Amino acid sequence: MFKRARIAANSAVRRSTFAKRILTALLAVSLLPAVAGSVEARDPLLAYGARIVGDDARSRIVIDFDREPRFSVHYIANPERIVIDLPATAFGFPAKDLAARGLFKDIRYGKMDEESARIVLTTAGPVKLALAKVQADEAGKGHRLVLDAEMIDKQAFAELVKTQSWSDQSEAAQTTSAIPAPEKTAPGDFVIAVDAGHGGIDTGAIGVDTKTEEKQVTLAFAKALTERLNKEPGIKAFLTREDDEFLSLSQRVLIARQNHAGLFISLHADTLKQKDIRGATVYTISDKASDKLAADLAERENLSDQIAGKETVAEPPEVADILLDLTRRETQAFSISLAESVLNSFKDQVGTINNPHRHAGFRVLQAPDVPSILLELGFLSNAEDEKLLLDETWRGKIVGLLTDAVKRYRAAVIANGG
């Protein structure tokens, strides 16, 4: 299989330059970077208390802040969500104090970037905020945000979505003026984007024993891998996110492309209902999933933007068709080669699941001209995997093996004229 992939990769090299030129022109409009204005850093708000009451007809949320918060409210359909945007906020209350109930089937909150935070209320049906206001706390401790939600019909909710105004245009734009980049890149350097899955409001999976959040695990591995790769001559690696920040799936892809990455490696540590399943898995992109496990995982990972209250912006159909075609023709063989190189490194060194190379329609792997893999380091739903994922020595071992895999992949590409 590895030999077949190398042959396909060699053929793809001869076509890649022309294809990339076509692709760059086609995507120029849809992927133009937005210029982000500078915002003065300020101390974050502190949300120190929260409570929720109500039933399936009307529910109230109250959140206590140390000072008066500015906020805005928006509605998103499919599924129905209410989004409350805030300035930078530290959420200091126990998660159980804002556990979903009444009209809400899921409540998420957290950091979006250095200047903003967000609360996303996923509702059980069409809902609107009959009241959304800030009032001073009677005890003089600060201010409280009061949100009264009530059930409405589908037509009324659709009208809310249609007529609302998103005053913050950054929601619809990709902020790319301050994207991470490799340092001191020289001509001929092999550039690698290391993507720590999840982040900010999107915590990812939760450890079965320690309750560690997946976003913390992936960032620790991503930092260690980037540091290790940057010790190799001719290799320059960079992080798509450097701290606990939310990035949409399309932003992750765009960051890799704008930095002219030759590889994209997305790190994850998911959970499964089957607690006994453990080990690493490598995924590549495909419009048809290799199996139900891959399909279910891709579906969950692709919900990342919904969790954060992001609207999915569809690409123009003609561009989407070309993207799909070029992904298959120009990068899939390279992605497969990288996946197999990783698994060869792991052989007899790292436990893997059965059939460890799988594929599905992961949106984060859709960079049309960047070979990409999604690596499940292990499963936080398995107690033994969780211990390893939190072990610094094991992390170092994985990082070393991944570096070896990248070096072999690079050598094969260069030998084939890449």
From TrEMBL:
The record's Gene Ontology biological-process terms are: peptidoglycan catabolic process
Keywords assigned by UniProt?
Hydrolase, Signal
SUPFAM superfamilies with a match to the protein in the record:
Zn-dependent exopeptidases (SSF53187)
* Catalytic function, reaction form: Hydrolyzes the link between N-acetylmuramoyl residues and L-amino acid residues in certain cell-wall glycopeptides
GO CC terms on record? outer membrane-bounded periplasmic space
What superkingdom does the record give?
A: Bacteria
Please name the InterPro entries in this protein's record. AMIN_dom, MurNAc-LAA_cat, N-acetylmuramoyl_amidase_3
**SMART domains xref list:** Ami_3 (SM00646)
Q: Which residues form the MurNAc-LAA domain?
A: 253-407
Query: Top enzyme class of this protein?
Result: hydrolase
- E.C. no: 3.5.1.28
> Could you tell me one molecular function GO term of this UniProt entry?
N-acetylmuramoyl-L-alanine amidase activity
Q: Where is the signal peptide?
A: 1-41
- Which PANTHER family does UniProt cross-reference here? N-ACETYLMURAMOYL-L-ALANINE AMIDASE, N-ACETYLMURAMOYL-L-ALANINE AMIDASE AMIC
For this entry, the protein name equals N-acetylmuramoyl-L-alanine amidase
State the organism named in the record.
Answer: Rhizobium leguminosarum bv. trifolii WSM2297
Which lineage is the organism of this entry classified under, starting from the top rank? Answer: Bacteria, Pseudomonadati, Pseudomonadota, Alphaproteobacteria, Hyphomicrobiales
